[in-house]
Design brief:
The protein is mainly alpha-helical. Helix content is 54%, strand content 11%. Strands 1-2-3 form a three-stranded antiparallel β-sheet. The longest helix has 24 residues.
Length: 157
């Protein structure tokens, strides 16, 4: 197995497992659990929508959207930059999609539990998606090469 695929699989599996284990424990809560009162709580929420609960009840459509995104990630994997940073960011995106996809298939909703009281409740898979997408965008802006995070090659040759 190539080294970049090892990074991809290792990070994806770690974050999928972390997401699913945290969701398992959060789903056992009957009420909100204050970690820091009125600042950070663990609150079990059934999210039948997509981002921040938008489009509630559209589970079938959202599930098919996940299937399309997973298919695109697998299909375009080889065209994605092969440096460590890019592969790790792609693994974050993949883990986020798979983590929430598992919930949709198993329960018909996504389990959200991270509650900062000033923001909609979210989960580890959502964090993975955001970190991965932001990382890919930043990498695209700062450098497109496969040499690492910053690309020092002359783009005008």
């Amino acid at each position: 197995m190539k080294k970049e695929k090892s990074y991809f699989l290792l990070f994806a599996v770690i974050f999928i497992l972390a997401d699913q284990i945290a969701k398992y424990f959060a789903s056992r809560l009957n009420e909100t659990f204050p970690v820091i009162l009125n600042i950070f709580h663990v609150t079990f929420v059934k999210n039948t929508g997509i981002i921040w609960g938008a489009f509630p009840g559209a589970n079938s459509l959202i599930t098919w959207l996940y299937v399309v995104v997973i298919g695109m990630l697998v299909y375009f994997y080889d065209q994605f930059p092969k440096d460590k940073f890019s592969r790790i960011m792609l693994a974050f995106v993949f883990a986020g999609v798979i983590g929430n996809f598992i919930d949709r298939i198993a329960f018909g909703y996504v389990i959200d539990f991270i509650d900062f009281r000033i923001w909609p409740v979210f989960n580890i898979a959502d964090i993975c998606l955001n970190v991965g997408i932001i990382g890919i965008i930043v990498k695209g802006i700062l450098g497109k090469g496969n040499s690492g995070f910053f690309d020092n090659t002359n783009k005008y040759r």
